[in-house]
Amino acid sequence: MIEDFLLQRFCPGKAPRETFRAELIRLCNEFIASGLADSSFETELTNGEDGALWSRMSEALTYDLLRHSHELVDPDMAAGPDFLVTNGDQRVWIEVICPSPNDIPHEWLVFQEGATNFPHEAILLRWTAAIKEKAEKCIGSACGKKKGYIEKGIVNTDDAYVIAVNGCQLRNGPFSALYGISQFPFAVEALFPVGPIQVTMCKETLEVVDEGHQFRPFILNKNKAEVPADTFLDPRYNAISAVWAIDLNGAAVLDSEQPKVVVHNPNANNPLPQGFLPADSDFVTMPVGEDGYVLNRVVVN
Questions:
Q1: How far, in Å, CA of 123 to CA of 179, rounded?
Q2: Sequence-separated (6 or more) residues with CB below 8 Å from residue 51
Q3: pTM of the prediction?
Q4: What is the dihedral of CA 246, 250, 253, 254, to 10 degrees?
Q5: What is the DSSP letter of 273?
Q6: Measuring CA to CA, how many Å separate 152 from each of 79, 91, 192?
Q7: Which residues of the chain have pLDDT under 50?
Q8: By CB distance 3.0 to 4.6 Å, which of 26, 68, 70, 195 could disulfide with 214?
Q9: What pLDDT was estimated at residue 110?
Q10: For the stretch 20-48, what's the b/e string if a residue is b when 16 or more beta carbons lie within 10 angstroms of its beta carbon?
Q11: What is residue 254's DSSP assignment?
Q12: Strand 281-288 and strand 208-215: pairing?
């Protein structure tokens, strides 16, 4: 069923399409064989909806990454997070989400020759929404109407909890779009108040007197409402250990760029060690003064 669906979805043809399809089929079959895919994996993957396809494919892709570096534990909980690994005696839960390209201009998603606008704010809103959705799966909704994994007793208060966000549906055609207007990953822009690079000039002399990143604690959505962009500075989210930002669609088999970074929460109740997850680099903070942080990029591979 998966093979027939992917053959139609990605068009019959020879290499590189044949190679790409074969890789996706391998990923799905190995994930199912592992026993970690839930009973609706195949049905949702093949229901014809792109959102469902990439949501489920993201699980298979994340499994493929994790299995090479960690022993995955079957938590035997259908209603819990997607994956469970261990860090010594500590449990580390990983919840996967692949945000859909809602409100992203079509001309950005389908690569064309020539210049195009970078819809960085629209993309960032997809990241903030994805992170909030999966954070509340753990801690519950702000209004208290929906219980989270912690209140349900699935995730313990001393467990680490990681949100894996696969940004593959927000790409500019074949090119990765993991990094935002600040030149930091979109995940950093969603978790810390880091905005575009700005330059301050003297009106009289036109000399540059200051430059750096704009302080941006929120971003406006299409309704002009303020959407917080400083999640890791909000104590409500201290149960979130890190966000694992990935850009995976199976095209690594064709040598396509598939970047991965981990952004650590400096206020996490249960921090995640640097280098624990497969990534090109980790983003960590160092405290400065009474209420400041310096954000550092640490290359781990």
A1: 10
A2: 98, 100, 169
A3: 0.93
A4: -90
A5: P
A6: 10, 16, 29
A7: none
A8: 195
A9: 83
A10: bbebbbebbeebbeeebbeeebbeebbee
A11: G
A12: unpaired
Instruction: Convert the pLDDT of each residue in 193-221 to its tens digit.
Output: 999 988 888 888 878 877 888 899 999 99
pLDDT at 115 (0 to 100): 60
- Give the model confidence (pLDDT) of 71-126 as tens digits: 999 877 668 999 999 999 999 999 999 999 999 998 888 877 666 789 999 999 99
Q: Which two tokens stand for residue 116?
A: 């195009």
Q: How far apart are CA 278 and CA 263, in angstroms?
A: 12
Task: Check: CB of residue 197 under 8 Å from CB of residue 101.
Answer: no
How is residue 115 written in tokens?
């210049």
> Cα–Cα distance between 188 and 45 in angstroms, integer?
30
Residue with tokens 């000399």: 207
Give the residue carrying structure tokens 């030149």. 183
Nearby residues of 181 by Cβ (< 8 Å), 6 or more positions away: 118, 120, 189, 195, 196
> 81 to each of 35, 68, 116, 134, how far by Cα in Å?
15, 20, 38, 9
- State how far the Cα of 117 lies from the Cα of 102, in Å rounded to an integer: 16
Structural contact between residues 271 and 247, judged by C-beta atoms closer than 8 angstroms:
no
Q: How many CA atoms does the CB half-sphere of 56 hold within 13 Å? A: 23
Q: What is the pLDDT of residue 252?
A: 82
H helical segments located in the chain: 2-9, 17-34, 41-45, 50-67, 106-109, 120-139, 149-152, 186-191
